[in-house]
Amino acid sequence: MFDPVRKPEASGPPSGRTIPALAALARPALMEALQGCCAELSDLAGLSASEIVLRHGGGLVLVEQGVTGYDQVILTLAVERPGTAVIVISDQLPGHMVRALMKLEASDIVPTSAGVEEIIDVAEQLRETQSIQGSGATSKCWAFRGAVGGAGVSTLAIESAFGLARKVGPGKVCLVDLNLADGMTTSFLEAVPKLDLHALAAAPERLDQRLLAAWCWEHEDGVSLIAAPRNPDADLLATEAAILRLLDVACSAFEYVIVDMPRHMMPWTKSVLGAVDEAIVVSELTVPSLHAAADMCRETDALRADGAKSKLVLNRMFPKKRFRAEFAVDKAEQAIEREIHTTITSDWDAARTAVNLGKPIADVKPKSPLVADVAAFVEKLLPEDAIEASPQASKKRRAK
User: Fold this and answer.
1) What would be one Gene Ontology cellular-component term for the protein (predicted)?
2) Containing domain of residue 57, as a range?
3) pLDDT per residue over 208-263, tens digit each?
4) Which helix (H) or strand (E) holds 330?
5) Bridge partner residues of 314 (DSSP)
6) 7, 165, 263, 282 — which has fewest CB within 10 A?
């Protein structure tokens, strides 16, 4: 709760650290406290949102919830200058404000009880994030969603995460299981579900990279997993603000975030699909599945503000050498008037063995056609510069 009578200390921080330049829209008592820790402090009071964007867009901006015009500043920066680093002081930020912060390349939320030292810590982290992202290393978020039940979405999300880690290196990929009520990723990988959904729902604005690290389980292959214990009431706790904040912080901590989404519509589904870099619809090559996939792709495309189309992936395809009662992929594309981005070959025996051992399929049967198809799929989605910088690319150059 915002407390207008609380007064932070006016003296500078005991550590002697300072923020080089900060533009702030906050109550007078906090502005006074910030004077002692900022080499250059700009008071935004009395300026319009457009003036703030013009003068301070791209820099470091602090806004306090409750101060007149704070919301308009955040919304305008998110649209016009997303490269701005923004610190928000709030104990309960509305969902639409959290969505706006997701559009910024660097942002964080601190509670109203935060002192000057904590604000300096956050400012330093955001300046570092700004520096990294300014060099071109931005995070990528891919969301997987099934058009029909049983399409193998969780398996494909898992294999994509591990295939991606093999290309870009360990420690850079995070798999987030948003099937909160009945997710299977932890069972497939014999992982520990560490996400505290009650704590996240109670105060999503308190989530930062340190707390996120405590909620991550890391596989020996270098992929981190965020999943909650199975709970039939979990969907009731998953508010839009909580889920968006979780993904926002995950994207600030990892270069690649893979999201395993439920097929049924949740309060946050549209916001997530509209914000991710790639929306992937998973289906099978049957007439009902194709119709459902085409409908879901069209619905998803309508949410994509950048105009990027969703990717349709057909999973559990029969091997090419095997006789099958399926119609050709090109005929399927004509029937639904939609390009099929990728097909993934079925390997039931390898998949069954992998889940029984708690390992990705590539660790059990590295030459499986499913593993090869996933690797090709991941490479098609990766930016060219990421492929060139990958460990595998480096090995190939050294081999030459």
Assistant:
1) cytosol
2) 22-134
3) 888 999 999 999 999 999 999 999 989 888 998 899 889 988 988 899 999 999 99
4) helix 329-336
5) 283, 343
6) 7
